[in-house]
DNA sequence: CAGAATCCCGAATGATACTG
DNA sequence: CAGTATCATTCGGGATTCTG
């Protein structure tokens, strides 16, 4: 796995420039809510209401639009069950799970170091 | 190292809630420009002009404010040399470097998968 | 060269109310 | 329960100009 920017560049000539697909993915995944929704889903399948409570502070509007973006990116799957009352479940796709394997160590580090960083 | 949200929670009771320091760090590091500036610096020390060119599309205003935020967070050091014309160098701190060790695998994965994700 | 200061617009976000 | 619709608002961020 590439562990330096130089290595990444050896395999991609146009990385992280404007209009590069990587910028789009960055915007979706690293967005304020995107990463928190993905984080919540990293624990497993969750329903709309669960996500709303798990992602502290998110509005219904932002949860909806974030989920739609992540679903369009193929990182999240939405499953609606034809029941009354309605039940809808969200889960990571295989690709989403792969992504979160890279994100979780980062989130762990942030959780460990946030106090010191913000304190200064 | 923590590799799941459950593990992270065992060590931190208030993780990723609103008003939690982690949210602040997330906003700084995962911001549109923050991560790209950090990425550019992961290759080593760089001057203002180099950063401006390395981070494609960034305005002077955003470069300045991003650098100030990252410096205040202790992730970047600024060194000004008392010369004419002025020379200023930016570099990752030890903490910044530690952070980027977690970020780079993620960026590599994004570079590898961005095309497929956006194509859909 | 390396910024700081100002002005300003539009997209992103939030709050609220409503619906299948 | 799981959303959508609408409106009000903020503020990220670009363009421009100026300075040590």
Automatic annotation (TrEMBL), chains A, B:
Database matches in PROSITE patterns: HTH_HXLR
Presence of keyword Transcription regulation: yes
Domain HTH hxlR-type, first and last residues per copy: 20-118
UniProt keyword Hydrolase present: no
GO terms of molecular function: DNA binding
Protein name as it appears in the record: Putative HTH-type transcriptional regulator YybR
Gene name, Swiss-Prot/TrEMBL: yybR
Keywords recorded for this protein, A-Z: DNA-binding, Transcription, Transcription regulation
The species this protein was found in: Microbacterium laevaniformans
């Amino acid at each position: 796995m590439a562990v330096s920017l130089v290595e990444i560049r050896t395999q991609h000539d146009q990385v992280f420039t404007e209009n590069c697909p990587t910028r789009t993915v960055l915007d979706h995944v690293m967005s304020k809510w995107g990463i928190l929704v993905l984080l919540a889903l990293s624990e497993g399948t969750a329903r709309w209401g669960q996500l709303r409570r798990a992602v502290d502070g998110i509005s219904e509007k932002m949860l909806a639009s974030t989920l739609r973006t992540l679903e369009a990116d193929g990182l999240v799957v939405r499953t609606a069950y034809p029941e009354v009352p309605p039940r809808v479940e969200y889960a990571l796709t295989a690709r989403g799970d792969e992504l979160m394997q890279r994100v979780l160590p980062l989130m762990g580090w942030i959780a460990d170091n946030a106090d010191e960083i913000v304190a200064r």
